From TrEMBL:
Matching Gene3D superfamilies: MFS general substrate transporter like domains (1.20.1250.20)
Pfam family, one: MFS_1
Compartment(s) where it occurs, according to its Swiss-Prot or TrEMBL record: Membrane
Domain of life, per lineage: Bacteria
Designated name of the protein: MFS transporter
Membrane topology: Multi-pass membrane protein
TM helices/strands, residue ranges: 41-58, 78-98, 110-129, 135-157, 169-192, 204-226, 270-293, 305-326, 338-356, 362-381, 393-415, 421-444
Keyword Transferase: no
Record-level GO cellular component terms: membrane
Limits of the Major facilitator superfamily (MFS) profile domain: 45-456
PROSITE patterns attached to this UniProt entry: MFS
Length: 456
């Protein structure tokens, strides 16, 4: 799968010389970066970051597969599970900006490796939770540990990839989400079925132990091979570093004024992007955390079959995300691509509700919805990277992700409450569809953000 992603990068994303002949870039005096240099950087950085991001998604959402046996053992209600699942993001929000401030202080290589070690160990400790209170505490600690990883990676990519290549790089990174979904379902169900009772541990305990350990190992690999910036990359020669710096410098010089970090709070584009991303995150994690339960509501589904069925939305996302990013980069347009994808997601949810009596129809509708939602994320972050640059942009990225992560908390929690009140997860999914429609309006009606703020 990773080799396939890198082939896409080689063939489509990094060799678009003919595409960038439009007057917009010519007026700004930009020169096309050497495609060979972009491939070299992509091959060095993206596999490492892709692996780290994939593991982060696995360790976030594996509780959705452990939910049923774990809830029976420790006494979790549906609302309590939804709250605990979302609590991760509430604490994540609180620690995100401080974490990224420390990333700037210590460097991405050290700080991202620290984050991975901490979240991997805490995921393993989840095997010993015995009460709902323990569950809440561990989810909160896991949120604090992982805070800053994703915005830190986004900031790191902005230091390596010029604006015209950034959506492609981000979309390749974001493919880690669907790949994680494809892996985590069958793997989790296999662990639950075949390791239950081994050495006195329940299946769900083995799930956390075995899925937390790879993050600890990967942290060492990241620390060994990652470079904080082009200046620290011994694998680039002087001419390559100079060419990359010129390309990145041209991005920062394009019609951009100076500003302080807190000036973003008075910028309407900041709030528009943050709130639109919050609606997207609400949709993503509503589906990710509750997909197994939604499918189980439609009848008796075996655990192994359930693990394979949950792959469908992630495969759909894996297909749509690179296509949308390639089209967006090729046309140098973000707004209408995002709006169209979110409306596709709304249509998918409505189709799932309409076909709810048929488990296959439900799965297909949710697959279309999930693919539409997730495909917008790299495009929104590309808009953020175009708007905000400079030494304090890492904190701006973290602040936007902090606000957006409130949607990650609200989605799973509200669906859990909705199920407890109505006995069904389908009714609260209507609220998710409305939220995505609002997100589409925020992006489409707000206009294309111009590259105006360089933050000191």
């Amino acid at each position: 799968m990773l080799d396939c992603c890198c082939k896409l990068m080689r063939r489509g994303y990094m060799q678009r010389v003919r595409v960038w002949r439009r007057p917009l870039h010519a007026k700004r005096g930009q020169t096309m970066s050497d495609p060979a240099l972009m491939r070299k950087i992509g091959w060095r950085l993206l596999p490492l970051l892709f692996a780290g991001y994939t593991l982060s998604i696995i360790d976030r959402v594996n509780i959705s597969f452990a939910r049923e046996p774990m809830s029976a053992d420790i006494g979790l209600s549906a609302a309590a599970f939804g709250f605990g699942a979302g609590l991760f993001f509430l604490v994540y929000c609180a620690f995100e900006v401080p974490s990224n401030a420390l990333l700037v202080r210590f460097g991405a290589r050290v700080w991202l490796a620290r984050i991975m070690v901490t979240w991997g160990l805490l995921t393993m400790v989840m095997a010993w939770v015995q009460t709902p209170l323990h569950f809440y505490a561990m989810r909160a600690l896991l949120g604090a540990a992982e805070a800053g990883f994703y915005p830190g990676v986004v900031y790191l990519l902005s230091a390596w990839f010029p604006d015209r290549h950034r959506a492609a790089a981000l979309s390749l990174l974001m493919l880690g989400g669907p790949v994680a979904g494809i892996i985590v379902g069958p793997l989790s169900m296999h662990i639950l079925l075949h390791l239950d009772g081994v050495m006195g541990f329940k299946g769900w305990q083995w799930l956390f132990l075995l899925q937390g350990a790879p993050a600890v190992v990967m942290a060492g690999v990241l620390y060994r091979w990652l470079a904080d910036s082009p200046q620290h990359a011994s694998w680039l020669d002087r001419h390559e570093r100079d060419a990359l710096q010129r390309s990145l410098g041209q991005d920062s010089a394009c019609e951009r004024g100076e500003g302080r970090f807190w000036d973003v709070l008075s910028d309407l584009h900041f709030w528009r992007l943050a709130l639109a991303l919050a609606t997207v995150y609400l949709g993503v994690y509503s589906v990710m955390f509750w997909l197994p339960a939604l499918l189980q509501q439609k009848g008796a589904v075996g655990m192994q079959a359930l693990g394979w069925m949950t792959i469908a939305p992630y495969v759909a996302s894996l297909l749509l995300m690179p296509l949308l990013a390639f089209s967006s980069d090729r046309l140098d347009e973000r707004r209408w691509h995002i709006g169209a994808a979110l409306l596709l997601a709304v249509g998918g949810i409505l189709a799932a509700l309409w076909l709810a009596r048929d488990g296959v129809g439900l799965l297909l509708g949710l697959s279309v919805a999930y693919a539409g939602i997730t495909s917008t994320i790299p495009l929104i972050w590309s808009m953020v990277g175009k708007r905000y640059q400079g030494s304090q942009s890492a904190l701006t990225i973290a602040l936007i992700n902090t606000i957006a992560s409130l949607g990650s908390f609200a989605g799973p929690w509200l669906l859990g409450i909705g199920q407890q009140l109505t006995g069904s997860l389908l009714t609260p999914m209507c609220a998710v569809a409305v939220s995505l429609g609002v997100g589409a309006l925020l992006i489409v009606k707000g206009g294309e953000p111009t590259p105006e703020l360089s933050l000191r």
